[in-house]
Amino acid sequence: MNPNQEHGKAPQHFNALARGLHWLMAAMILAMLFIGTAMMTTLHHRIALIDLHRPMGIAILLLALLRLVNRLRSKTPRLPADLPFWQVLAAKASHWLLYALMLAMPFLGWAQLSAAGLPVVMFEGFNLPPILPVSPTLFAWCHDAHSLLAKLLFAVVLLHISAALVHAWIYRDSVFASMTKSGNQKN
Question: Can you name one GO molecular function term for this protein (predicted)?
Answer without folding.
Answer: metal ion binding
